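Give me structure tokens for this 170-residue protein.
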Amino acid sequence: MKKILLLILATMPLFCFAQKVDTKIDDFTGEKVVTTSWEKIYSGGATGKNQTRIRFRHEGGVDLIEFRVFTDCATSCNKGQEMLLKTNDGIIKVKNVEYTLAKPGDWTPNGINSKLGIYIVCLGSDLEKLSNETVTKMRLTFSDGYRDIALKEKDSSKLQELYNQFNKAK
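Here you go.
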């Protein structure tokens, strides 16, 4: 009996996706602010290169998608630069809201690792398509070129579920 209980407890993290949505009211504006947890949607293989985490945020009446990407070189992303999300039905375009430079620790939400990463905040008017469409690939464009990231089916469904929870909360 102890072995069965131990096995269940040991494998539980593999099956649980604890996606969280934080909802609060801004003290100054009185507007609702909705933020999801950071979710890793691309692991980057053995090297971790291009490891990507995503979260959604609704603030000031706009929906934002935020990316944290592990890079192995210094790079930047210009204001207005398009990031493309390829779905089973088309392309969703989002635009970077400000110039961003890769900095140590920016690729991980808790900032404990000092390797180079880039934190990008994008605005997109077509984000609602994510509730019905599955993202299969992403193209993240930086100053040194673009990175195409193919998503596994489980990561695509994790992204879609995260968006649906976000959309329900706003």
